Amino acid sequence: MGETTRRVLVALPLGVLAIVIVLAGGPWFAGAVGILGLIGLREFFMMSSAYAPFRFAAYLGLVGLVAAALLGTAFNILLFLAVPFLLVFAAAIHRSRIDGVTGSMAITLFGLFWVGIPLAHAVLLRDLPDHGAALMFNVLIGTFAADTGAYAIGRLFGSHKLAPHLSPNKTIEGLIGGLLIGTIAVWCAGLYQDWFSGVDALVLGGAVALTAVVGDLFESMIKRDLGAKDTSTLFGPHGGLLDRLDAVFFTVVVGYYVSVALIS
Fold it and tell me: Per-block average pLDDT, block size 10, for the chain (264 residues)?
């Protein structure tokens, strides 16, 4: 079985799960997103365990961010970005020694921001009036189409390295293929949405496809720095949750703001 086929087989159940969660919406969506976030944070803290992160403080902060996005306003989200600083400090002063405490606090807050802020935006995107579910689907379709397209085109035609110091297997040909396929995928989805023009679909698709590459490279940089091949073994040889959602953490943020600009 080829690597591309294995990737598709892994993506299929995740796609079904995503459909169910997005359609459910509301507290069900937020709850599922929160659980995924806790798993993702755990993976990151396992990779960065040498820094002794304050895990409980980050877990509380993530739950607060997701809850604020569901029940509150932008003010409440900002509040739960500030509260973790106090939680981390409270955890730090209970350590018997403060050696390395700055690194522990930094890695804790970094993990919370990397995982928590995108998931809060995912809730905001899903809760957009009238078309939140459809827009969420558009972003996910564009993300996974761009990721799969970049991998497949890169394997078939790739010869020029994109960023060898971050991810030696990614190529410029794969980047171009991912951009085209991701953009077209969102445009095709927009054909079934009479409230969403073709131009708007192309704009959203292009933004999502380009951002997906950034998210992928960002995670590759983190893993390379921490000396990890995969974030966990949750999906066996296909890595962990962060490996599957690295692009999504970036595209849901961009997707939210582009969607708001297009439909406002």
Answer: 64 80 94 95 95 94 95 85 89 87 95 95 94 96 91 85 85 92 96 94 96 93 89 74 92 97 86
Q: How far apart are CA 115 and CA 93, in angstroms?
A: 25
Cα 112 to the center of its chain, rounded Å: 12
Contacts of 131 (CB under 8 A, 6+ apart): 193, 195, 196, 263
Rounded-to-integer distance, Cα 184 and Cα 153, Å: 15
Dig out the tokens for 177 from the structure.
């293929």
**How many other CB atoms are found less than 10 A from the CB of residue 179?**
21
Residue 239 — φ and ψ, nearest 5°?
A: 85, -160
- Which residue carries 């509301």 as its tokens? 26
Which of 239, 250, 166 minimizes the C-alpha distance to 208? Answer: 250
| Rounded Cα distance, 147 and 155, in Å | 12
Cβ(15)–Cβ(1) below 8 Å: no
- Strands of 38-105 (E only): list them: none
Return the pLDDT at 3: 62
Q: Please count the CA atoms within 13 angstroms of the CA of 259 that sit on its side-chain side.
A: 28
Q: Domain-by-domain residue ranges, the chain? A: 1-24+131-264, 26-126
Residue 161, φ and ψ in degrees, nearest 5: -65, 140
Q: What are phi and psi of 162, to 5 degrees?
A: -85, -55
Under 8 Å CB-to-CB from 210, ≥6 apart: which residues? 179
